[in-house]
Amino acid sequence: MMVNRRSIVEHPFGNLKQWIFGNGRFLSRQLKGTRAEMALAVQAYNLKRAIQVLGAQKLMALSKRLPNSPCVSQTDTH
């Protein structure tokens, strides 16, 4: 069970390290900046995966249902 869990969990971290961080190191030197950098990297990874799984059109359609969505302009009041 641990081998299966490890293989599921390590895949996103391997992708983050390779794709987003490039060389696997943080650019920030302090903990506050490193936390922010990691949060942005995880958000980018999640968005990339959502686009791969759902497709860009469906993801935008779903995000338009959310309040304060950046996909809905201020003039789109129905």
TrEMBL record:
Transmembrane segments annotated in the record for this chain: none
Pfam families reported for this sequence: DDE_Tnp_1 (PF01609)
Domain of life: Bacteria
Molecular-function annotations in GO: DNA binding; transposase activity
One GO BP annotation of this record: DNA transposition
Residue ranges constituting the Transposase IS4-like domain according to the UniProt record: 4-47
Name of this chain's protein: Transposase DDE domain protein
Species of the source: Pseudomonas fluorescens
